[in-house]
Amino acid sequence: MSGPIRHIVMWRLRGETAEERAAARSKVKSLFEGLRGRIDGLTNIEVGLDVSDVDYACDVVLVSEFADSAALKAYASHPEHLRVREELGDLRIGRFQVDYPIS
């Protein structure tokens, strides 16, 4: 697939208290926003924190855009991305993903 691609990931995070979940959300946001400008082909990155407080909502959403599917594939194994995943450890308890071409 050629052309730009949007990569959306949503997570549910570990945390027994509201404070623990808020700290987890902030950590995810900070780490992923730190990737801005560090990975070739990553053209845009946005991290949103849920404010709905409904029990079925995810805690965090990552919306990122890549120059093409090759750039997205390279991102998956990029050392900076792998560092973020390692720093997050087992903080994530649920993960959902959608990738689609941007027209």
Walkthrough of the structure:
By secondary structure, the protein is an alpha+beta fold. The protein has one domain: Alpha-Beta Plaits, CATH 3.30.70. It is built from three helices and four strands; from the N terminus they run βαββααβ. It has helices at 18-33, 69-76, 79-88, and strands at 5-13, 42-49, 60-66, 92-101. It has a four-stranded antiparallel sheet with strand order 2-3-1-4. Helix 1 (18-33) runs antiparallel to helix 3. The longest helix is centred in the N-terminal third of the chain and has 16 residues, at 18-33. The radius of gyration is 14 Å and the shape is globular. The model has no long low-confidence stretch (mean pLDDT 96). It holds the Pfam family Dabb. This is Stress responsive protein. It comes from Bradyrhizobium jicamae. InterPro entries: Dabb (IPR013097), Dimeric_a/b-barrel (IPR011008). Residues 5-100 form the Stress-response A/B barrel domain.
What is the gist of this entry?
By secondary structure, the protein is of the alpha+beta class.
